[in-house]
Structure formats: C-alpha cells, structure tokens
Amino acid sequence: YMVIVVAMGYSRQGAALGIALAGLADFLRRGSILRLAAIIAFAALFHSTAVVVFPLVAIAANRARFVNYLIVLSIGYLFYTLFIERFIDTFIQTYIGSRYASQGAAIRVAINCIAALVFFAASRRIAFSPTERAIWRNFALAALALSVGLLVSTSSTAVDRLA
C-alpha cells in the first residue's frame, strides 16, 4: 500500500516518506540524532506529518536516556513550532471539529496493526541490532496506539493521516 498508493499517488507524502526512510537508514548507519533531525526537517518541507517519525526513531538511540529524551523533546518542540503550530487550529477544525471521515481508514490502520503484531510475534527470529529492534518496536506500538485512536477519535481522517 505504501509503495503503490502513497508513493505513486500522493507526491508530497511520497517524497516525505522516502526522505524519512533515508533518514532512518542514515540513523542506523551513523547514529546521529542531529543529522536525523536535519533529514526529517527536510522531509517535513514536503509533508509536515513527517515530524512524527523523528521521536519514534530518535528515542531508540544508544546513549544516556535522560540526555536522549532532552534532545528529542527540544528538537520535537522546534519541529512543532516550525511545522505544526501554524496548522494545528485548521487541523482541529477541519478533522476533529467537523468529524471528517476517511473511507478505508480502518483497513489502512488494520494493515499497520497486522504488521505490528507480526513484528511482536517474530522479532526475536530476525537479526536486528538493539537499536533497530527498539525503532521497529516504537513503530509497532505507534501503530497499535493509532488503532485505539481510530476507535475513540471523532475523525478517522486525522488518525488515518498519522498512520
């Protein structure tokens, strides 16, 4: 779905996704949170939801937890200020306030949930480094959280966009 529909059908989202995945690969190779932040910021120029990737990847870094969380919070706040803050009122009014719904949102969120459950069932059999395992665990937990969000949210489109 991501390759065929998102990458080929939604050019801005596809560009943001490709750049964010390149940032993920670079982070796994070099382990630099600041470099990851720069790449994700570039991805967010195409689609602001790319900033969601940053904390999911960055908190998996192998460094002192307190320092790591401080860096993630600082850069996360910067990303919020630069890419999200000016759209938050419109986002809430458009998606939440008007109860905007997406057809197929449940299917798309379910696809992510199935992948998350497969990860939890089989991750020990895959040769992940501790950092890779933590990153994919974070993505899997986010997918499961979004499935709960779909059940309680007044807007399936808001959850669908994040998923």
Overall description:
The chain is 76% helix and 0% strand. It is an all-alpha fold and 163 residues long. The protein is globular and about 45 Å long. The two termini are 12 Å apart. The mean pLDDT is 88.
Please describe the structure with a list of short key phrases separated by commas or semicolons.
163 residues; globular
Order of helices and strands: HHHHHHHHH
Helix % is over 70%
Number of strands: 0
Average per-residue pLDDT, rounded, comes to 88
N-end to C-end Cα span: 12 Å
SS class: mainly alpha
- In terms of per-residue confidence, which ranges show pLDDT below 50 for 5 or more consecutive residues? none
Count of helical regions? 9
Q: Quick one: overall form?
A: globular
- Residues in β-strands, percent: under 5%
Radius of gyration: 16 Å
What composes the largest sheet? none
What's the arrangement of secondary structure elements?
Blueprint: H1 2-9, H2 11-30, H3 33-44, H4 53-58, H5 65-84, H6 88-97, H7 105-122, H8 130-152, H9 156-162
Helix pairs in contact: 1-2, 2-3, 3-5, 7-8, 7-9, 8-9
Question: What's a quick, concise take on this entry?
Answer:
This protein has nine helices and no strands.
